Amino acid sequence: MRKQIEGSRAMAEAVGLCRPEVICAYPITPQTHIVEGLGEMVRTGEIKNCEFINVESEFAALSVAIGASAAGARAYTATASQGLLFMAEAVYNASGLGLPIVMTLGNRAIGAPINIWNDHSDAMAVCDSGWMQLFAETNQEAADLHIQAFRLAEELSMPVMVCVDGFILTHAVERVDVPEQADVDAYLPPYEPVQVLDPNDPISIGAMVGPDAFTEVRYLQHYKQTLALRLIPEYAAEFKKKFGRDSGGLLRTYHTEDAELIVVAMGSVNGTIKDTIDEMRADGLKVGLVTLVSFRPFPTTALREKLVRTRNVVVIEKSLAVGMGGPLANNVDLALRNVAGAPQVHSVIAGLGGRPITRASLHRVLRRAFVQPWEGSHFLDLNEEIVAKELHYVRKVRRSGPTAENILRRLGQAAEKAAV
Amino acid sequence: MDATQKLHFYQKGTFTVGNRLVSEEQRSVQASTDRSNALTCGHRACQGCGEALGARYAMDAAMRATGGNVIAVNATGCLEVFTTPYPETSWQTPWLHSLFGNAAAVATGVAAAMRVKGRHEVRALAQGGDGGTTDIGFGCLSGMFERNDDVLYICYDNEAYMNTGVQRSSATPPAARTATTPAMGPQPGNVFGTGKNVPKIAVAHGIPYVATATVADLHDLERKVIKAMGIHGARYLHIHVPCPLGWGAASHDTIRLARLAVECGLFPVFEAEHGVITGCRKIRRQVAVDEYLKPQRRFAHLFTEAGKERIGHLQALADRNIAEYHLVDAEGDG
Question: Does the CB of A280 have a partner CB in chain B at under 8 Å?
Fold first, then answer.
């Protein structure tokens, strides 16, 4: 049914349609509305036969989900940012044990400095933990991906993280087609665990594994993700057949066929990028876009096929691996490794801590890629004047004080001066 | 489980399992056919391990009380490591090890799953050492208490991080030598701090049942586990389990030390329901703390001229327990 609805509510309703049996909730902005919605639906009986547990931390949230999943229940939780880091040990544990938990990640920056707004630092911090990571572009896709995520997780007995941009998706009210229960039931079979704690058939789970077997266990985790490279498009195709729309898959393309420059990006920023591409094409600039849905598993081959014939690739990402550059750009590089005549890859770090990525800025950086391509990372809309002042100051003064507060003070001074 | 379960060659001739090979009349209590022996074959605990003993009696009692319907969650630690030298496992129950600090929360998840599946007969039991309970797992433990989740949590308290090589925990007694509180300097051994009395903290949560127990009184321990399994909601059992390796004590002194800890007053044995203490085990023959401390090398530095005053401080702690829990009857008959 089509509704004008907040993204978080749409995701909560989609999760509810998946008949979760244990939901663990701990609040963190911007994920709160999702678990609030689920809590309400469990109270009203809209979600039946479900335990909604208010836990004392994110570490406990995922730990409760681990216990529930190992005991054979379909388990769900949601988090963001600091919460994901607080549960990091359990994140690795859930995937290492092969438990098909689904978790929403309301993507948010990681502090310090504390920041509640959107970027992808949190997802990147655990991208190699063994969880599959799917990124939603719209609220429709955010809702749909949850339904596909349970199917994928349970087929492979591996956990899936559905990554949705904090505020931009979670708090945006827009039209979403929320599926019907009967259709979801037909798409998502009941959870049939591959391992379960049961007194009638006692097994031990979680034994110490030494050098003799650890590599094999890890390899099989990796192998399962390579299987997901086949399953993700298969489930997206089946989803389209049943629900009539494109959601999910490994990646999507926009005007890539004749493109001389292809942008690669993940999440909600793809809408802005598509608008920018339309305008640039009207000016005769042949720009295309690859929207990456699956970051883990990383669709190396599929991505290479889309990029290999173009001249330049610009990776726009909301994350920074400090001391290295853009982690997504690094992964895109990998897709083009050892390819003769491969395009140049240019990295753009954008939208950190919620800074808006505007069409004007995208025009500037993409036009520059045609005429004056760069090496290393380009920080979109970096305030170079403030940075230069701060660098000058810390060179002069040993006790220069906290960086974040210095920058804020300089911004305040600049604003005051402008007002006079 | 019955007495016909498969035995491994190295178990034959031991008192625990091997005597199941002899006729029923000749068997020890441990090997009787009505015990589930939930924790049995192939474990690698040290000789005289108090934790292995405590865990076996606790788990067997829980199995008896529930008709074998127990799912156990184990924190990282000695018990976890020495019971699952895969491909062998010592557990005859469904058993899950997740992390060091989350056993209480994982057990909450197990209990929730059983409730939602309508399997009300299956009960969740979480267990860990003092490090996994009073330190790193304390947040999850308190959360489970506060929500009154249907979990029995058992702490096997051997008073330090034994699995990693005897480092101090918040359950380490004052003056005890550990690898991180060496017997050196003007204040040798662990500090005389304010302490962290987790059984009392559990009582303060107002949960349905809290008890302490010791491997010196296994019938009392079993009774408490059975009682706990007859109650729904959050329950906490804190078992004092001497560690020959960490305490520097003889393997054959485990039970003796557990008994002396109670009889000197340093480890009060009590029960509480819904935030109120309902019973204490009286001291039958009160002993001075020296008698308990002396056989343990972790306290050897106290038995010098300089240590006398510190033994006095420990005696004061024991006396405080005796007064607080009324461990010795005024009439003096104990």
Answer: no
